[in-house]
Design a protein that fits this description.
Helices cover about 65% and strands about 10% of the residues. The termini are far apart.
Length: about 160
């Protein structure tokens, strides 16, 4: 029985698996998206999401914890500066896995794993739509109220001049 065995060993020993995930995490932080197999992408998602959560609070202790996992000071710096700034308001779910099909050589299931907030195609339309909707409602209320109040004042002034 396999009760409680959540770790996908990826056909590697523990040391090799940890170093491979650290290298993949550094590549993901540097390039914001990488192509890999589905199994490795799922393992990487579990590996990097807690690190991104730690990066939201920039303390020396959190930097040292993340450095113990990544083993790359440039990756840690970029994670705490660029990535944490974009995901500061997100409560979780920092990465997205998109399946790409099968690899030509060995027919392995391939996937692209990327940071959600760095994909401009998905985020650009949603954020702009919210802002324009809110602004247009307040602008319409202000525009409709102002001409109604000014129109009778102009008409009464013209009417008084016409009667004289």
């Amino acid at each position: 029985m396999r009760h409680g065995k959540k770790v996908n060993h990826l056909s590697r020993q523990a040391g090799h698996r940890k170093l491979m995930l650290a290298n993949m995490a550094c590549s993901l932080i540097e390039h914001k998206r990488i192509n890999t197999t589905v199994a490795k992408a799922k393992a990487l998602k579990q590996y990097i999401e807690p690190l991104v959560t730690k990066s939201k609070d920039d303390t020396t202790h959190n930097r040292r914890i993340v450095f113990a996992y990544l083993r790359n000071k440039y990756g840690v710096t970029e994670l705490f500066r660029e990535v944490a700034a974009k995901v500061g308001d997100r409560p979780g779910g920092y990465t997205r896995i998109i399946k790409l099909g099968n690899r030509l050589g060995d027919n392995a299931d391939m996937a692209m794993i990327e940071f959600v907030d760095f994909n401009e195609l998905y985020n650009a339309t949603k954020k702009e739509a919210k802002k324009t909707t809110r602004r247009s409602r307040t602008a319409k209320k202000a525009d409709t109220a102002a001409p109604v109040a000014e129109a009778p004042a102009v008409d009464t002034a013209e009417n008084t001049e016409a009667t004289e």
